[in-house]
Amino acid sequence: MALQTSSLAISAFSVHSEGKKSNGFSAIESSFSFLGVPLSDHRIAALKMKKKIAVRAQTTTAVTTPTPSISNSPNEKKTLRKGNVIITGASSGLGLATAKSLAETGKWNVVMACRDFLKAERAAKSVGMSKENYTVMHLDLASLESVRQFIDAFRRSEMPLDSLVCNAAVYYPNAKTPSFTADGFELSVGVNHLGHFYMSRLLLDDMVKSDYPSKRLVIVGSITGNTNTLAGNVPPKANLGDLRGLSGGLSGLGSTAMIDGGEYWGAKAYKDSKVCNMLTMQEFHRRYHEETGITFSSLYPGCIATTGLFREHIPLFRTLFPPFQKYITKGFVSEEEAGRRLAQVVSDRSLTKSGVYWSWNSTSASFQNELSEEASDAEKAKKVWELSDKLVGLA
Ligand SMILES: NC(=O)c1ccc[n+]([C@@H]2O[C@H](COP(=O)([O-])OP(=O)(O)OC[C@H]3O[C@@H](n4cnc5c(N)ncnc54)[C@H](OP(=O)(O)O)[C@@H]3O)[C@@H](O)[C@H]2O)c1
């Protein structure tokens, strides 16, 4: 049984054929998005952003709003302050590698938002991050109260918020019964989606107030939530159904713990949570991009088979998965490379287009990927947003 589960799970993460090849987007398109937009124009826009944001749904697809970035001109470079970026789950894996990648440029103060303060401090030291480039702050996404406390602490620090990366995640592929957050939500969706949803909704105002020229909210997605890929077609497939479980609160009491109302299955709960992440990014884009100029993005960083994400898997899986990805599927990406990819989505001037799900091809060139039908369903995104708002008490 264990082996069966292992091989199923290996296949679930094994095939990395993305929906679309590189379209060559980068240098040319991005140059245009940065040319002809004087910084002063953007500062005017930043002032406008300070007014209260009206929540409104739009139905446009991804569009680029010209967003000024760090200029290459030596004069402008001098005037640009260090950016502040919050990265959740920066104590290991992708989050840590991204924190390192951004910190070592000397252009970012990385706020490592982590549930284990000491582990995060040690992790930062272990990868050689210099103290002046990071701050560790406590955050447990399995508790809405902890999210509020984190935001209070962040605001007391009086740092402007320039970018937010929703990266933390849990994955329970072998769990037979669900676990729950402090607020009673099934843990995978509670941490990966609802905790981040609540946090980003509250922190949007802080980002609006920032005068940083290129502000970004990034929500990490996954190939496994996209059924337009081979990997996304390995059972159990992501499927939010008619959202009856989400509507019922995912508490397992009087409603099921699964978004679609079905039987609990840990691997599916993770994939469903990733669909919510990708839908949330697009709904943010539709509601707020035009008005705020903030770039909303998601990404699939590649299969980082060595991270702690697989810690709940059986030992055999953890042993076989990395070489399987490296030598058989060739979908393997190192933590360092994945960190550089996510860092690009945070800071690269060629990735300012909002509403995009980024992926990388075999030569590590970024391209705008296509999401599955469900993960790009605007009507579903709106419903997930509204139900999530109710669950976290923002409706
Ligand atoms: N690994 C892959 O192949 C892969 C592929 C596609 C997408 N992703 C995505 O990449 C992201 C990072 O995953 P990873 O592979 O780097 O896994 P990871 O090494 O396990 O990192 C997950 C991070 O989330 C943190 N975390 C878990 N529960 C939390 C909570 N309640 N509150 C705050 N932080 C919490 C963990 O903290 P602790 O250190 O305290 O445990 C850890 O820092 C996830 O969004 C995942 O879906 C990964």
From TrEMBL:
The Gene Ontology CC terms held by the record are: chloroplast
Q: Which GO terms describe its molecular function?
A: protochlorophyllide reductase activity
Q: Which residues cross the membrane?
A: none
Q: Where in the cell is it found?
A: Plastid, Chloroplast
Q: Which domain of life is it from?
A: Eukaryota
EC number assigned by the record: 1.3.1.33
Coiled coil ranges (UniProt) are none
Q: Which reaction does it catalyse?
A: chlorophyllide a + NADP(+) = protochlorophyllide a + NADPH + H(+)
Q: Using the UniProt record, give the first listed, main subcellular location.
A: plastid
Do the record's keywords include Transit peptide? yes
- One of the protein's GO biological processes: photosynthesis
| Family from the record | Belongs to the short-chain dehydrogenases/reductases (SDR) family. POR subfamily.
Question: What does the record give as the function of this protein?
Answer: Phototransformation of protochlorophyllide (Pchlide) to chlorophyllide (Chlide).
This protein's name: NADPH-protochlorophyllide oxidoreductase
Q: Which organism is it from?
A: Zostera marina
Record lineage:
Eukaryota, Viridiplantae, Streptophyta, Embryophyta, Tracheophyta
